[in-house]
Amino acid sequence: MKFRSFKLQNLLIATEEQQAQSKKALKKQQKEAEKAARKAEKQAMAASEQQGADEDDFAKERYGVSAMVQSQQKLDRVLVRVQDLSPEKADQLIWLRARIHTSRAKGKQCFLVLRQQQFNVQALVAVGDRASKQMVKFAANITKESIVDVEAVVRKVEQKIESCSQQDVELHIERIFVISQAEARLPLQLEDAVRPDGEGEEEGRATVNQDTRLDNRVIDLRTTTSQAIFRLQSGVCQLFRDTLTKKGFVEIQTPKIISAASEGGANVFTVSYFKTSAYLAQSPQLYKQMCICADFDKVFCVGPVFRAEDSNTHRHLTEFVGLDIEMTFNYHYHEVIESITDTMVQIFKGLRDNFQTEIQTVSKQFPSEPFKFLEPTLRLEYTEGVAMLREAGVEMGDEDDLSTPNEKLLGRLVKEKYDTDFYVLDKYPLAVRPFYTMPDPNNPKYSNSYDMFMRGEEILSGAQRVHDPELLTQRAVHHQIDLEKIKSYIDSFRFGAPPHGGGGIGLERVCMLYLGLHNVRQTSMFPRDPKRLTP
Amino acid sequence: MPMYQQGDSRSSEHALQNGEVDPAVSALEARQDEILRKLYELKAAVEGLAKTVTTPDADLDVTVSSSFSSQSSRSIMLEGSTDLDTLLGEDLGALRDIVINANPARPPLTLLVLHSLLSQRYRVLSTVHVHSSVSSVPPQLQSCLGPRHPDSYARHLFQLGFTLIWKDVPKLEMKFSVHNMCPIEGEASVARFLFKLLAPYPSDPAAATLVDSWVDTAFFQLAEGSSKERAAVLRALNSALGRSPWLSGPEFSLADVACYCCVLQSCAASSAPANVQRWMKSCENLGHFSSTKQLLQ
After folding, report:
1. Which of A256, A290, A524, B83 is the most buried (most CB within 10 A)?
2. Is the residue at B99 inside a domain?
3. What's the pTM?
4. Any idea what the CATH number is for the domain that residue B99 is in?
5. Of B24, B154, B179, which is closest to A398 when you measure between CB atoms?
6. Would residue B161 count as lying in a domain?
7. What Gene3D superfamilies would the database entry show (chain A) (predicted)?
8. Confidence class of residue B83 from pLDDT cuts 50, 70 and 90?
């Protein structure tokens, strides 16, 4: 009983150290030590019992806990992916690695559901000439979420297995080894986390609230829904890049630590920077424009964007991924709008055509109408939007900014008339836009700026920028911006600047609204908001 | 200038009616001036066109202007714009956009003809979209409303929007004022609505009913009927056209548009009797039917 004596010794050392400590703490520690000792004893008992039983176990080479994979050997074993398990593979002996999703033991049989990402398959260990009683017991006792290597024969099933993604086959396990053991108690159950809202209440089952999910993000990300969401998000990024690259855009990287805020210092994070302070970029705006002045013509960048707005809403994050576009145009900024909307339409089409499985998976938990759009994209002018709102009984001035409820209402009106979830609202009032926005040549109250909406929520805000240093200075003064602070920005336009425009999209918002989700945290892998900094 | 005075008095009346001093009055006036200027240009363009056209097209202009014969030609153009106000409701300072959802499997030929007629009468902003419910639309359908207007970047310069959306719909539908109108279903109903923007229906109830019955005949018996029914309609057309140049008498009407398009669509044109052939030629001479033939090719 080497193990036990080690424990005792430990206890002795501990007691020596604690002599100075209070009696209470000492007692507590002692109790814990006793508990640990008892547990060890129990384990030893179980082990010896197992050993006794092992003697008549003919299958003991066929299961167990593998040694930790430390790259001791390089096996020539092909691991089949769960999604590839189809009736064509019937009666083949295959290996695969998967997680134990659920297990259910029933006498001489044990049913397992093996999961790999968003796919799962039913597996069966049954007492017979391949598996012993002990092996079935072992399989039944593997904790949920453990990772196992399994050798099994693929068998066709007569009745479809409704609960699994691979419905036509099941696995008859011949060997099973635990590669990584999960702790017995999970902070949340995966089945609870994918249950559609409302369904749990009817059946008296648990649902997991958002904070619990986010606190245990690693486990929550394993759910089929999360898997689908983030695969789709990766698709959005890829389609964005592919489309723009095809249009002749250049991807750029811009610094995120900047010396001056682009739109006044109200909603920027200040960081200490050696002996002075700096800000976290709230958009790559200035750098995109400098690249334009440096003859890059068409640029885009994908990177983090920071907003120090203390707003705890369903659609605000303090750090998110911005997809930013800036391009020169020839004569009219609508060239820019057309380029951006076409990019968005290509993304929507790509998602519709290549990510149907993911969209279906998400809609199982969060049902929503499929995303609708027009090609070419519908463009309305601000005055038209205001007129539509007024017709619906909203009282607002010509130059008022759209409030969030009005934005949503307008989205509903547009959907009703044009049946599109994506549209552009053009010609915003100049007063509600930043200083670098180009005024409308025909009506100085309006500007050459635009917002794009998905399901009635803003996803992009853009404009033609002022490329004339004199007018830019004038506009900055009008907005009471300290000219000293933006000197380098204005100076970059002094040596010949082409007319240009652009805009920035929030990746998380696009995914949220495309899928019809209700909270941007669902589409942010590790969300940051005023109240959350971990994980 | 008399035009300006008229504009002024109207907008101030409007303000008085509302019983408030509207700060937007001056903006409204500016807009009205702008519209009047555009109308004036338009009028010049139409007059130029009218001179070059010697076909029965002139009939249409006559029918429109005859109802305002007591007024000067300048106020006819003015009445044109108030016409839209009375027909389509109060001007809210934004484009009046007519949205038509059509299935690309059944292109609405009559509406394309009416679109061409509307474009001659008003400044129409025409756009064609493809809805995400259909995957691909042939290029001739995407350009069926003609080339893009050079001013299409400025929506506020137009009187009327004509937005055609190719969409997977079982029945053609039109959406105009989503607040006051339910969606209008069926090509015939939409055609009647659009034609009323061009010319008032005949004031004689019998003549108006005759137009309506021809439209029904076109859509129910020509477009959807059996070959027997079609032959019967062609005979009826032939005898009607033996009595007068157009289907409803001396004036070109919606009956002609509907019947022409449905004859064309049902491929009965080649075997049509003499009067029908002659009438189809005169329709084609109007110049508004060219897009329909292109689409059927």
Report:
1. A524
2. yes
3. 0.80
4. 1.20.1050.130
5. B24
6. yes
7. Bira Bifunctional Protein, Domain 2 (3.30.930.10), Nucleic acid-binding proteins (2.40.50.140)
8. low
